[in-house]
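Quick one, tokens below:
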């Protein structure tokens, strides 16, 4: 047994304390006024038995076989209610047996009454092999869960109860190693539920799961007696990996007035797989009911119809269901409706608006099932043609490459040999297939490398080998260097098929190409040759990144143009006599002569480079001396000495 829910043992405290009232009055409806009546309330024992029987009913409804539950009553001694035999694993047998136990007598005071007797018997019950365990000769992992419903005074009493249980478990495992008639308990999960009347406070603290030892995990829950049923309902979801679904909007006729109808809700339990199989449960609408501690998925009742065979072909999963409140009128009406051969569709709201059918409720063989319906295209529909693609949009599948991959990894039968280890060839085949399929784009629109197969054919063939020789390495490096040249020259890539990459920018194309080549070579192998090719590719990729980073900065190119321009200007005769030596240089003639010497400067044009250079030269021009000498805010005089010689004619 590999899970804890294969065996579950309930230990019910039957001491005299459980005969007291829970102080929770029962709500009664009277058609006529009966006057003042004494309030009625259930005892702690009644709440304890009802909640444990409800736990058993849910387990046996959802798991008719394989999940075993036993009940033990503890007072002055341990009283075993049922066994691991399948004939005693039903609600009728347990109910009849519990009816003979009766309510604890408050007058029977004795120091021998204790829940410890039941805990000792629970360990012995877990050690007994079940019918399925007896079928196996070898010993399996024996795991189980013990749920104890009792009442303690304080936390120290609860810790003492855990210590006693741990000591008895350790002693049993020690004896089980020397005996063959009982199984050792590999792991036990102890769940203690402490209940008290309503007028008393919760004297025991709630504690989550805690590992006491490698063989024992314990947790404590402290609740009022009226809430023990809700607590066990919450715990059963995690114990058996269940989920809750609430069917809302069920139209039902009123019991008092048959002409009118109202909408009701019914909560059902089932396996969690019914929710998670539909893209995970996060896509389903959830809510928390009042007084509950868990979430429930709310699905709306849809128009019922007859149950046909076509309704079940599209199911992703099917699981048994059971109502949470089996005695309520809405639950009874829904069960009878389904058992009469009708089916109910359940709808979930869409984020974009509207509704979509997600589940189906139907009955077969007297049992009710919930079917999870696919929200996307069904696998039972006709497959799309490869020429059309999925939905008529995908038309560039790499069919030929996939066919070659299958042929290169086809396995043939081989005679067994003592020199070869078992499963040696299969392991090699798995490793080879894993390398080849680690990176395998399904369509040409997802790859740029396989759109250049004619250009990269020798590289793709070489890296597909287990080992690369010097010739293969040189051949791969030559192709990588040629790609580096294309990148530096910004020449278009030889992409012949995919229109998606044709319309993208050259920088994006080269970036995708280098990244995809690195991923492809890295996933092809770990040999010395593969590492050498990968190292060469990364070095070239770094050079390309440096080139792209430096390309926006064309200062070096501008400096070369300026130096070239100065050499040319030294040989030019100044034609305009009005130009002063500090006038800006005219570049019309020099530009035409030096055009063939200009280096590559990225996407900038020659006019842009010369214009930017000319602006720098203008910025270096000597400022007008009058403007420099004049204080800020005043106007500089162009000829400040004009008129001085006229006022003093005798001075030269």
């Amino acid at each position: 047994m590999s899970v804890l829910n294969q065996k579950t043992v309930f230990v019910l405290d039957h001491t005299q304390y459980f005969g007291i009232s829970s102080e929770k009055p029962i709500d009664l409806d009277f058609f006529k006024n009966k006057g003042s009546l004494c309030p009625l309330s259930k005892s702690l024992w009644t709440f304890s038995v009802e909640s444990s029987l409800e736990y058993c009913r849910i387990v046996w409804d959802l798991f008719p076989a394989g999940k075993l539950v036993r009940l033990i009553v503890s007072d002055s001694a341990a009283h075993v209610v049922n066994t691991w035999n399948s004939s005693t694993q039903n609600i009728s047998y347990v109910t009849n047996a519990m009816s003979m136990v009766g309510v604890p007598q408050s007058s029977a005071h004795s120091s021998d009454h204790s829940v410890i007797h039941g805990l000792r018997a629970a360990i012995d019950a877990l050690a007994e092999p079940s019918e399925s365990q007896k079928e196996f000769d070898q010993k399996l992992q024996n795991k189980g869960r013990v749920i104890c419903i009792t009442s303690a005074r304080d936390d120290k009493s609860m810790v003492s109860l855990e210590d006693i249980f741990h000591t008895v478990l350790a002693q049993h495992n020690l004896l089980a190693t020397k005996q063959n008639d009982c199984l050792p308990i590999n792991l036990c999960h102890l769940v203690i539920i402490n209940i008290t009347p309503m007028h008393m406070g919760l004297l025991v603290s709630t504690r989550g799961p805690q590992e006491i030892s490698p063989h024992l995990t314990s947790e404590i829950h402290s609740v009022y007696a009226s809430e023990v049923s809700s607590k066990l309902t919450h715990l059963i979801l995690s114990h058996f990996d269940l989920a809750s679904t609430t069917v809302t909007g069920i139209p039902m006729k009123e019991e008092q007035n048959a002409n009118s109808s109202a909408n009701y809700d019914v909560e059902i339990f089932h396996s969690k797989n019914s929710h998670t199989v539909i893209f995970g449960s996060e896509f389903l609408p959830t809510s928390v009911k009042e007084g509950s501690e868990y979430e429930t998925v709310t699905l709306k009742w849809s128009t019922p119809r007859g149950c046909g065979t076509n309704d079940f072909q599209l199911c992703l999963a099917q699981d048994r269901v059971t109502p949470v409140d089996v005695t309520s009128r809405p639950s009874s009406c829904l069960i009878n409706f389904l058992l009469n051969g009708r089916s109910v569709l359940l709808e979930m709201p869409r984020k974009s608006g509207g509704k979509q059918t997600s589940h189906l409720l139907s009955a077969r063989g007297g049992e009710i099932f919930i079917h999870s319906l696919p929200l996307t295209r069904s696998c039972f529909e006709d497959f799309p043609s490869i020429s059309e693609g999925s939905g008529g949009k995908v038309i560039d599948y790499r069919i030929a490459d996939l066919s070659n991959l299958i042929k290169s990894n086809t396995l043939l039968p081989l005679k067994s040999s003592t020199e070869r280890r078992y499963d040696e060839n299969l392991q090699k085949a798995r490793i080879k297939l894993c390398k080849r399929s680690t990176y395998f784009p399904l369509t040409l629109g997802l790859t740029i490398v396989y759109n250049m197969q004619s250009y990269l054919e020798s590289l793709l063939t070489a890296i597909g080998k287990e080992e690369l020789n010097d010739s293969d390495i040189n051949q791969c490096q030559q192709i990588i260097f040629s790609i580096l040249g294309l990148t530096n020259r910004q020449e278009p890539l030889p992409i012949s098929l995919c229109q998606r990459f044709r319309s993208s920018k050259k920088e994006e194309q080269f970036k995708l190409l280098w990244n995809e080549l690195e991923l492809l070579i890295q996933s092809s192998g770990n040999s010395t040759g593969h590492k050498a090719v990968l190292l060469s590719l990364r070095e070239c990729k770094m050079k390309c990144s440096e080139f792209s980073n430096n390309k926006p900065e064309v200062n070096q190119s501008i400096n070369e143009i300026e130096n070239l321009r100065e050499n040319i200007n030294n040989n030019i005769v100044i034609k305009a006599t009005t130009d002063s030596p500090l006038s800006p240089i005219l570049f019309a003639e020099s530009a035409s002569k030096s055009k063939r010497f200009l280096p590559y400067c990225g996407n900038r044009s020659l006019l842009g480079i010369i214009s930017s250079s000319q602006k720098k030269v203008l910025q270096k021009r000597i400022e007008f001396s009058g403007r420099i000498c004049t204080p800020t805010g005043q106007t500089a005089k162009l000829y400040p000495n004009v008129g001085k010689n006229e006022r003093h004619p005798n001075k030269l």
